[in-house]
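Anyone else keep sequences and structure tokens together like this?

Example one:
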Amino acid sequence: MKKSLLFPLFMTLTISTFAQPTLRQLWQSDSLSLKGPESALFDPTSQSLYVSSMGSGSIVRMDLHGKIMQADWVTGLHSNKGSALYNGLLYTAETTAVAVIDVKKATILKRIPIEGAVMLNDVAVDAKGIIYVSDTRTGKVYRIEVDQPSLFLDNIPGANGILTVNTDVYIVGSTTFLKVNANKEVTRIADGFESGLDGIVMIRENEFLLSNYHGILYFVRSDGTKKTVLDTRNNRIMSNDISYDSSSKTLFVPSFSTNQIIAYEVQ
């Protein structure tokens, strides 16, 4: 009797362990309206996307069907990349500073310079309003509290995507995926990725999608298991700093090389 009960349990655990999401393309934006989109940021409040059009130094507002709402929502930025929203403000990484934008007024309020920065890349804000920003060229992550930057972590080659979940900070380097807890203890979740990791989103508890800017999307669990779920390198479609709408299970993927945003349903 015990043997007959154990077999179905084993099968259930096996299916759970190796099940992975699939992606179904919903739409792709035209290739004329954006210039070098490095990141797409989903905003649940306005139900729109803020796209860092790095090639034009602007942020473009796009609806959730890939249509441009405001081509010049904010201009005058410098090599703007990853962005994050908090309490009516949008923070975006320029080369050596974080620009702070008033969302309602669509104006740049100020810039927070990071001394010694070379190429700031991604931004995340935690529930307390503390800002984290990566510097890919120096392999560092900075923490900004009350407009005062300080070094949070270093020695992360290719430091790029950042995600905050409760008191944890998730970071990707060029080939590795890390978690840092409130005590700054670093856990290496997974490594051995092809060089070029870029963005992170959480799709379910302990389950993530990671982008590689060359054109790869990975599914990764907190136990370190990982699978490739999409590879568009042969079509020269990149996968840069991604964003996710958990309510509709939609993943938004910027392609810097083709000047597009591509949306996928995560199934």
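And example two:
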Amino acid sequence: MGTDIRAGAAKYYDLNPQVPNDIPFYKSLVPSPAARVLELGCGTGRVLLPLVEVCGYVHGVEISEAMAAVCSEKLKVAGIVTTKARVEIVDISDFALGQTFDLILAPFRVLQNLEADAAVDQLFECLRQHLAPSGSCILNVFNPKRDADALRREWCIEGEQFCWEAAIEGGRVICHERRPRLDTAKLILYPELIYRRYQGTEMIDEAVLKIPMRCYYPDEFAQLVVDHHFRVLQRWGGYAGEPYGKGPELILQFTWDG
């Protein structure tokens, strides 16, 4: 799978206070207590573990070994057996699990990490292969605050921007963001998150996470789903039920229409 770009940041990921309040939203869409759920890009298990409470089985897939290890340890500590949940290290655009699921979801903008058109096409093919006949999928991306031209002009900045700070045992972690470049043709952002751990005033660790974030606008995102032969069932603009295109997120629930 190549280098684990999230290896250094995995230990700091759960400190981020800026994650959305999306867990009640995803819980509400689990179709039954016996449902089988597949989470793409499950990371450290932020969404996966709460989902165990409301479904029959959750299968998480994650490309980062470091992130998957944190998630697996959480499952172990919580006493959650493999018949209820497990994590597998795979690429979300190239996997064959040999089973189907009633609900497939990819929380917190996981889709946007796929840069190449071919990878996006492969993801949708994997969704089709793993979706139960009456099942549905949920994908989300952020709703860009700027139009495409403004994004090209204004997104890149000099230096670092403060994101958040969190207290930990023996010190604190501060996260900053750099915005050095973007692909102006495909509108792919390349942010860099810098995690610095301090004891007092001394920095004792630094980890840099470089991830691509491909931008989608509301009509474009919905058309992407339709073009891959899925039918949109519901759409939201945020986890509090905001109208699609009017809130901070773009969230689509869809099913196979082939």
